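QA checklist item 7 of 12: single-chain prediction sanity check.
[x] sequence parsed
[x] length recorded as 118
[x] structure emitted
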Amino acid sequence: MKKILIGFFIALTMSSSAQAKYVTSLAGPGVEITRVFIHQSGAISLYISGETLNLDNCSSTFRVYIPQDLPSKDAMLSVALAAKATGQKVGFHSSRCGTTAFWGGTVDVPIIDNMWTF
């Protein structure tokens, strides 16, 4: 029974991560953060400018969303603010596309799970 549960967990983990995609190329050049918006919930919307891959086929990539319950949210906010202040470019990986009620709930954007700088 324990082996079945472990196998199920591995399959579940692999299937959910297989759907996640790169919003920007891991190799660069990255995108510029043009605006930072902190939601009342603690979530973060970052407006970006530059070339995106959009492998998740979100309806828009002018903005990305960092959920309030993401464990690395505070670190990502620090990186985003530092990158905006210094003009450094960043990269993103998405867990999926999603809408946010604050922005009207009609445009789905990448939901970020990983972020890096160039």
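[x] summary fact logged: The chain has one domain: 2-117.
[ ] second reviewer sign-off
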